[in-house]
Structures are given as structure tokens and as C-alpha cells.
Amino acid sequence: MSVEHTDVGAYALGLLEDDDRRAFEEHLSDCEVCAAELGGLSDLRGLLSGIGPVEVDEEPEDVTAGVTDLVERRRREDRRRRRGTFVIGLAAGVALVAGGVTVGSAIVSPGGGGEHHHGSPAADVLAKGVRHSATDPSTHAVGIVATRAEPFGTEVGLDLAGVRGPLTCRLVAVLRSGQQQPVTEWAVPEKGYGVPGSPEHLQVHGGISVKPGDVARYDVLIEGGGRLVTVPV
């Protein structure tokens, strides 16, 4: 049975079927990456079940069920879209706003590009990995990409600043062969990141199934068309 690093989030939420759960537990005993991720998500299920809506008509139990269903759908969509790309660092942050539920994987740095949220997967790669940076002359977005070779391929961290929302973005690795591999995706709120009035940078974390040397550049793309910044490596 196939076991993916993405299963760590579903396992933490109790979403895996019995066969998948047993296979993941066997995988977990030999995988330090998944074990570390699971430690960071150990309280996630309890956190989700205890969240109530801010302005919604449904009962709290209905909202909790909706969150769980949304995470499960997102897990299945990620598996189909990535097609063998192992993504690590699933951090499920949940926000209930004006009756809506959003699930994302963003980690916010409290300072500038050189200050990282200690203990987060993104910050660890940005602090210890090979770093590349670029500023787009049109959008003024600033991106720092850090990579680290792993047995599964490449672990990737992104620090993004100089961007306002609302936007939905994704990080894509463009290989030297011309092919693309998705790394991760997130939402940018209206206030943005790394701009006046909102100085915090956005840090996100993911992975791809090829080695660092196989990648030519990383593109931060905008859903619906457009590019925020391209970081050559």
C-alpha cells in the first residue's frame, strides 16, 4: 500500500481508513520527517473539534464536521494534483470568518526576511538550506527560496514579502526539462505581507520529488493568471 508524506495531516485528524492508518503507522516508525511533522500536529484534531463559528447559522457541530470534510477533500485533491510529488510540512491552520471556513498552510514570520519563526518547517529550511532570492520589478514582490536535498527529493521553504491581497497563490518548481511540479499553495489576505501596515512575511513549506539540481527556477503564480516573482536557482 502506498504511503505518502501528505498522510501525516490526515492521520493527525483521524481521516485515514483502517488499512491506510496501519500502513502509515508502519511508515511512521521509520520516517523521522513524518514523525517530526506529527509532533507539531498532535493537538490539531482537538483544536478543530473545539472551534466554534464567528458568524454562522449552523450549529458548532455542523461547522466542525464541515472543517473535517474540507480537509479530507483537500487531501484527496492534493493527491490527484501532485501525482507522486511528496509534500511535507502540512500545517493545517483554520480560520472561521464571516461564516466561511478556510484551510491553509502558511507560517507567518514576525520579522523581516532574515528573521524566521523558530521551530517551523519553513523556517528550518530557510535557515539551513541553500538560499536564492529575487525581486520582481513590476510587482515589487520579494521572494526567498531555500532548498534542501532529501531522500524523497527536495524540501522547499519560501519567504514572501511585498505583496497585497486578496490573492490565491501557488509555488511551482520549473524543471530544467521544462516540466513543472507544484510545491504548495496559500491565500494572501487583503492586508498582504511585508508591506507598510503589515510587515510580517509569509513563510510556506513544501516539497518536490526531484533533486535540487533538476530545478531551473521557482515561480510564485497567481490563481487566474499572472506571476508575483520568479526565483532562479
Descriptive overview:
The protein has 233 residues and is an alpha+beta fold. It has 2 domains: 7-103, no CATH class; 105-232, no CATH class. The chain is built from 6 helices and 11 strands. The protein has helices at 7-13, 18-28, 32-40, 44-49, 60-82, 121-128, and strands spanning 93-97, 100-104, 106-109, 130-135, 142-150, 153-161, 167-175, 180-188, 201-208, 215-222, 227-232. A 5-stranded antiparallel beta sheet has the order 3-9-6-5-4, with helices on one face. Strands 8-7-10-11 form a 4-stranded antiparallel beta sheet, with no helix packed on it. Strands 1-2 form a two-stranded antiparallel sheet. Helix 1 packs across helix 3 (32-40). The longest helix is centred in the N-terminal third of the chain and has 23 residues, at 60-82. The protein is globular and about 50 Å long. Mean pLDDT is 74; it is low at 50-58 and 81-117.
Summed up:
The protein is an alpha+beta fold and 233 residues long. It has 6 helices and 11 strands. It has helices at 7-13, 18-28, 32-40, 44-49, 60-82, 121-128, and strands at residues 93-97, 100-104, 106-109, 130-135, 142-150, 153-161, 167-175, 180-188, 201-208, 215-222, 227-232.
